[in-house]
Amino acid sequence: MTEGRAGVWLCLVNRDGAAFLHRATPLSDPEVIEHELIEICQTANKETGANCKNLSLHRGKAAIKQRFQTGSVDEVCFLGPELGPLAGLMVGPEQGGWQVDEITVVSSRTGHVDRFLCRQRLGYRADKQAEYLTPVPSESVVYGSGETAVVLSKDQAAALHAMGMMGYRELKGRLMNTTAFLVACGSLIAFSAGGAEAAYPFAVGGSAALGYQWLLQQSVDSIPNKIPRRTLVKRVPIADAIQRITSNPGLRFGFMTALALTGIWAIQNWSPDSSGTTTTQVLEARQMMTGLLGFMMWKLAVVGVTTVPVQRRQPALDEMV
């Protein structure tokens, strides 16, 4: 929330058209919340479902927290009529701008839960000052936001995730194979043009490119995944250990530095001529450039794989809904 003193207006609408309007205050004061609960328990009957057993006044200074901040999860309790299952929820900030992701409305009387997804900015510098949201199944997985959002069940989301991981593994394989193919072809061309003195540095640089690309893939694989572990493919313990090691930026940098130094040493010491003459120095410079060209084959492979269209074998997302 960009305006610290602004609250949030909530309008709950049931399926018969009845509505209830409530303003959620911007501050979460434990003492005020406790007095509100006491008031609810004094004025409401037993059918409201409010828990009035463990209410005790705060002693001393209580911490006051700001609501509706970035990354926060706020809980708001209020007394209102029982509307039953909701048909919609109108939400909007009182002032300023507010980015809201999800709102869950729970009835303490019936235990019914209505889940609403917004996932957009409202208010100041936004397209809409408020948004009317419709409920989605509580255990569903939603991709996108607004009218273009796609609602999937857990099984459909797991199937979609499996399809995406399959395509990702195929992409990784194509990248590695393409890089190896380009390195091999480049080494043959370099051998034809300049003999072993040109082919060897190109092959060394290409080998470093393969190692660098593998490290990049391992780094992407180490990104935390929010999909439950039961929906993921079982991994070998050694693969998990390698992934944990390669996910460390310091270790990756050290490995690539060692690989680069090894490649430079191999190129410089490959030729038996180490007299230090001008001809030898020029030859070493050319070999370094050739090795760098071989290393850049990983980048050429990325460009080639991403630009060449691949026929999809999986059903489209709209066919799953």
Structural write-up:
There is one protein chain. This protein is α+β, with helices and mostly antiparallel strands and 321 residues long. It has 8 helices and 10 strands. It has helices at residues 30-43, 154-194, 196-221, 237-246, 249-270, 278-295, 297-307, 317-320; strands spanning 8-14, 19-24, 27-28, 65-66, 86-93, 97-106, 113-123, 131-133, 141-143, 150-152. The strands form 4 sheets. A 4-stranded antiparallel sheet has the order 2-1-5-8, with no helix packed on it. A two-stranded antiparallel sheet has the order 3-4. Strand 6 (97-106) and strand 7 form a beta hairpin. Mean pLDDT is 77; it is low at 226-236.
Poorly predicted tracts of residues = 226-236
Average predicted local confidence, pLDDT: 77
Determine the number of helices (DSSP H or I, runs of at least 4 residues). 8
Q: Report how far the terminal alpha carbons are from each other.
A: 34 Å
* Helix residue percentage: 40-55%
The description of the largest β-sheet is: 4 strands, antiparallel
Order of helices and strands: EEEHEEEEEEEHHHHHHH
Cα-atom radius of gyration:
31 Å
What global shape is seen? elongated
Portion in beta strands: 15-25%
Strand pairing plus helix content: what structural class?
alpha+beta
